[in-house]
Design brief:
The chain is mostly helical and 240 residues long. It is built from 9 helices and no strands. The chain has one domain. Helix 2 runs antiparallel to helix 3, helix 3 runs antiparallel to helix 4 and helix 5 crosses helix 6.
Length: 240
């Protein structure tokens, strides 16, 4: 029985990783189709998988799967938009799907992150840091709240930039932004925050330890159930 459980966890982890890779690859395939008209079949397949992947990403924000209703809504909306667009033409459908997936993903993440900044709530970055960082201390509360705000600004910036490019720039610029620059900008944001955190809190957990903690946390959730509340144990934030 434990062997079956371990195999199931490994399969779930592999599928999750595969879907995240698809979420990154699908916009690139869409951009190629929009620019060249080639690879429509592959791009459509990746578009369907991307809709599922976005739901997985949103549901997993915070590491506990609390946002599954929003995830299902986002995935269903993306699939609907893709199908309606394809009824007009493959290129139009893929372009519409690329824009809607970018908008739905970042709007959903903005809503999830911003909601945790409301009074009486614990900022989501604080919750994640408390779970993954064994050296977390009260002095980091203000910082993790500010990081949550920074991510909200980043998500809003993605949405505003996409809208401005869509309205006032050539289609290839807009497509390049949401398809080619999307993931690199997220990686730069993550690495920039990590560098600032390590400089401000040298005692904080390094990257390798945090990754191990992330894996251990998800393994624990798989064993004991993802619905186990953990935010109740988090200390209250100290505000701004």
């Amino acid at each position: 029985m434990p062997a079956m459980s371990d195999r199931g966890r490994r399969l779930t982890r592999a599928l999750t990783i595969a879907l995240v890779i698809v979420a990154a690859a699908a916009p690139v395939a869409n951009h190629i189709v929009v620019m060249t008209g080639h690879g429509v079949g592959i791009a459509v397949t990746l578009g369907v998988l991307q809709a599922i992947a976005v739901g997985v990403i949103i549901a997993g924000v915070g590491g506990a799967g609390h946002h599954w209703r929003l995830a299902l809504l986002a995935s269903a909306a993306m699939l609907t938009v893709l199908v309606l667009g394809l009824l007009r033409s493959p290129v139009f459908g893929l372009r519409l799907a690329a824009g809607s997936s970018h908008t739905l993903l970042y709007a959903s993440l903005l809503a999830v992150f911003a909601a945790t900044l409301l009074p009486g709530r614990t900022p989501i970055i604080t919750v994640v840091a408390q779970r993954l960082n064994q050296r977390f201390h009260a002095g980091m509360l203000r910082y993790t709240r500010h990081v949550t705000i920074a991510w909200c600004i980043f998500f809003a910036g993605q949405l505003v930039a996409s809208l401005l490019l869509f309205c006032f720039a050539p289609a290839r610029w807009w497509s390049l932004f949401i398809s080619g620059l999307n993931v690199p900008l997220v990686v730069l944001m993550f690495l920039g925050e990590y560098a600032i955190r390590r400089r401000r809190f040298p005692e904080s957990t390094d990257m390798a330890t945090m990754i191990r903690g992330y894996r251990q946390h998800h393994a624990a959730l798989a064993r004991h159930g993802a619905g186990t509340p953990s935010e109740a144990a988090a200390p209250p934030n100290d505000g701004d």
